[in-house]
Amino acid sequence: MSSADQSGVSPAPVPAGVTVPGRRGGYISQFDSFRVIACCAVVLQHSLLWNVQGGNTTAWAFVMLLHFSRTAFFFLAAFLLTYSQITRPRSTVGFWRRRYVQIGVPFLAWTLIYWVFTMITGNAWDQAWSLLWNYTLYGFYQLYFVVVLLLLYAVFPAVFRVLRASSHHGLIMLGSLLFALLLAADLHYTSSFGVVGQWTLDIASKWPWARNPITYQEQFVAGILVALHFDEVRAFVERWYRQVIAGAVVMGAISTLWYLIAVWTGSPTGRASDLYQPVAFLWFTAAVAALECGAWMWWRHSMRRPARGPRIFSAEFLAGLTGGIFLCHVLFINLVRSGLGDAGITPHLGWAGTVAMTFVLTIGISALFTALLLHTPLRWVLCGPVRAEQRARLGPETLTTPAPAVVDDVAAAPEREPVRV
User: CA-CA distance, 201 to 195, in Å (whole number)?
Assistant: First the structure.
């Protein structure tokens, strides 16, 4: 049986317009800077959430804008899953076995670490087992992303087959976007949707929408479709990247103005910056498109003019740290906050200085911790897939290679409210 048959992908002719890359290629370094920027956005947003109070209009405007990072990583995860399955197809069982081990083991390891940390710092031993069950089922704070990813893994093989066999990708993407906007409107203006709104509340009482894969279906579908049409997307980006980035800037300004109007008309800053509203979803879509364009621009520049500075400042090296930073940074952000508070520094810095100090220390310590872990046998257990090993195995991508192979991904995204432990 061929590899395509084993993967469950029909060997029938692919619909017109779908890119089918070759079976061989290199590591997609184009998305290294994509990962780095999105990861920094995650840590910066958490630094804001842990240090600013409700009512701070400026700070919560940044919180709203930085929410794009979660959708960026869902897009990237879907893109990489699709390209990996196209270039190195696996059976459905083989796909699940590989993915659940690669991501599931770090998830369980860090769930246990955060549970122990909560028990020690929160003296919550009377709630020990209920908290452990909650963390495992829903994910501790930022680890919700892994919970959603594991659920998406379950349906990915079927979704991939359906989308690859379809010849109506434009209509599918439009329908996915419209559904996302409708769901966002329902979640934000629940009382206006009557019975449907009540259903969404009932669902949230059993499984929070932040942990629900349906919430992120738009970017997941977009990632699959971009991977299927990667050559065409690259050609479009090369011609229109300036307009895409400019459009995202305009959409960001519109979203900020929408937020400010909501605050000025009496809405609390937390609700006005809610990520579950149509204007926010439009901003996320525009921001992810702009980030992809920016990553492509940087990749093209670096391929033509290789960097001459220290390797530790390269996108390649920093991208290798992002998985570990995502997994560990909530631990260190708590320790940093405690240290700043105990030292009596925070009141003298103001909210902006406190956020900046928290961000710099958290991301610096997390990066150093991850860099050290990557030199130990625990690297894949506590950091997820090791990108340096993937890059060495797959080889480099060249500027003239339109359809490289793909690597596995673990990524980060911010949660809505901080859990102070």
Answer: 10
Q: What ranges do the domains of the chain cover?
A: 45-394
Mean pLDDT of 143-171: 95
Supply 84's token pair. Answer: 């990996």
CA 401 to the chain's CA centroid? 26
Q: What pLDDT shows up at residue 309? A: 60
Identify the band that residue 89 occupies on the pLDDT scale cut at 50, 70 and 90: confident
Report the share of the chain in percent with pLDDT over 90.
68
Please count the residues of the chain: 421
- Tokens standing for 219? 């970017």
DSSP code at position 82: H
Q: Is the pLDDT of residue 417 over 80?
A: no
Single-letter residue type at 82: T
pLDDT at 310: 64
Q: How far is CA 274 from CA 62, 189, 321, in A?
A: 12, 11, 29
Predicted confidence at residue 140, as pLDDT, reads 95
* pLDDT score of 344: 67
Strands (E), 19-142: none
Torsion of CA 380, 365, 359, 118, to 10 degrees: 70
Q: Which amino acid is at 264?
A: W
Residue 12 has pLDDT above 50, yes or no: no
- Residue at 95: amino acid letter: F
Encoded tokens for 233: 């997307």
Taking a C-beta distance cutoff of 8 angstroms, is the pair 240, 297 a contact? no
Rg over CA atoms, the chain = 21
Tokens of 199: 């259903």
CA distance 45 to 59: 10
Mean pLDDT over 377-395 rounds to: 82
> Per the structure block, which two tokens stand in for 203?
């669902």
Secondary structure element (H or E) that encloses residue 332, with its range? helix 322-342
* Spacing of C-alpha 144 from chain mean position: 11
Burial 80-116 (b: 16+ CB within 10 A, else e): bbbbbbbbebbbbeebbeebeeebeebbeebbeebbe
